């Protein structure tokens, strides 16, 4: 089915876009170890949030951190696949692109850990 065909309804296009997105998330979850780690940590953090319990503001922050981390990891995976599609050779620019994307994920992960610890320490004062 060609989604650009004018006979295809807007709702069908809208629905198909979600199926493509979900397919990308599932494939990434099945094939990317780091994404699996991020999903696992996210699940743990959500469970901890229910056990403590988090305030509304803490939930907002944690959910933004989780969503941002998973979205950034998906973008990193997409960039890696595109670079691999373009060239099989070891090329300095291809390596630089992959390293920069991985670096962005790393920076966000470190920031997420720091903010997560700050939130957790609010529930366990020293």
UniProtKB/TrEMBL annotation:
GO terms for biological process: phospholipid biosynthetic process. Its main location: membrane. Its cofactor is Mg(2+). GO terms for cellular component: plasma membrane. InterPro entries: DAGK, DAGK_sf, UDPK. It comes from the Bacteria. Mn(2+), Zn(2+), Cd(2+) and Co(2+) support activity to lesser extents. PROSITE patterns: DAGK_PROKAR. It is a multi-pass membrane protein. ATP binds at residues 13, 20, 32, 80, 98-99. Keywords: ATP-binding, Cell membrane, Kinase, Lipid biosynthesis, Lipid metabolism, Magnesium, Membrane, Metal-binding, Nucleotide-binding, Phospholipid biosynthesis, Phospholipid metabolism, Transferase, Transmembrane, Transmembrane helix. A divalent metal cation binds at residues 32, 80. Substrate binds at residues 13, 73. The active site is at 73 (proton acceptor). Belongs to the bacterial diacylglycerol kinase family. This is Diacylglycerol kinase family protein. It comes from Metabacillus sediminilitoris. The lineage of its organism: Bacteria, Bacillati, Bacillota, Bacilli, Bacillales.
């Amino acid at each position: 089915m060609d989604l650009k065909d004018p006979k295809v309804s807007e709702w069908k296009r809208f629905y198909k876009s979600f199926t493509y997105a979900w397919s990308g998330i599932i494939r990434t979850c099945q094939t990317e170890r780091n994404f699996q780690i991020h999903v696992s940590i996210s699940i743990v953090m959500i469970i901890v949030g229910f056990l403590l319990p988090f305030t509304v503001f803490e939930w907002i922050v944690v959910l933004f951190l989780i969503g941002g981390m998973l979205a950034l990891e998906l973008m990193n995976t997409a960039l890696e696949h595109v670079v691999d599609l373009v060239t099989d050779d070891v090329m300095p620019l291809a390596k630089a692109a992959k390293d920069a994307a991985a670096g962005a994920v790393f920076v966000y992960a470190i920031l997420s850990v720091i903010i997560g610890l700050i939130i957790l320490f609010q529930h366990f004062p020293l």
